Automatic annotation (TrEMBL):
GO terms for molecular function: ATP binding; kinase activity. Pfam families: PRK. Gene3D superfamilies: P-loop containing nucleotide triphosphate hydrolases (3.40.50.300). It comes from the Bacteria. Keywords: Kinase, Transferase. This is Uridine kinase. Signal peptide: none annotated. InterPro entries: P-loop_NTPase, PRK/URK. It comes from Halobacillus alkaliphilus. Residues 19-155 form the Phosphoribulokinase/uridine kinase domain.
Length: 194
């Protein structure tokens, strides 16, 4: 995909900081798109910092077998939604540093790391369910990557695709809730078909 920044981003003015979200359901191409966007912004010498929300999920025992329905665990418990609102989204414009937990999948641990923020330029935040009511107000601009479920599912690795119950009960029910109740295609500033 060739990116035309003028079509997908607001006008970036010198001396200002823009919080831009790249939203989309699982396997819609968010990480690939963000990598391309970073490359284009770097060519224009825009100060940049990127957050991938999957780096900030909680440990497995906090999001699996909690007694809640699978889809609810994925939508509500995968991240500490309120904590991230307070410690990431409310502070991301400070132009200083943030200390956040980063998840290590192999060790199932979270380790705190400090991130330097630009005072001007762009902060990209990439992840699923970004337009949930707790986080949406903090973005200046949201791009929603729209991709059909069957196409996204085909991008999963063959081993993962064998666990259809997990897709039906956890991921797809949460996605259906998000599409129905949050309506991300409507509230996004830009929708791109991937």
């Amino acid at each position: 995909m060739v990116l035309d920044l003028c079509k997908i981003l607001p006008s970036l003015r010198s001396g200002q900081l823009y919080i831009i979200g790249v939203d989309g359901l699982s396997r819609s191409g968010k990480t690939t798109f963000v990598n391309q966007l970073e490359s284009e912004l770097n060519k224009k010498r825009v100060d940049l910092c990127t957050f991938h929300m999957d780096n900030h999920i909680v440990k497995k025992n906090e999001r699996y077998d909690t007694g809640f329905e699978d889809w609810y665990e994925y939508y509500q418990l995968q991240w500490e939604v309120e904590w991230l609102k307070e410690h990431l989204f409310e502070k991301v414009r400070c132009g200083c540093q943030l200390t956040l937990p980063f998840y290590d999948n192999e060790a199932d641990e979270r380790n705190y790391q400090t991130v330097d923020l630009p005072q001007e330029g762009v902060i990209l935040i990439e992840g699923v369910f970004l337009q949930r009511k707790e986080w949406r107000p903090y973005f200046d601009h949201i791009i929603f990557l729209d991709c059909a479920r069957n196409r996204r599912f085909a991008r999963e690795d063959p081993f993962a695709r064998k666990n259809m119950d997990k897709f039906r009960n956890r991921y797809w029910k949460a996605e259906d809730y998000y599409l129905r109740d949050v309506k991300p295609r409507i509230s996004a500033n830009c929708v791109l078909n991937t």
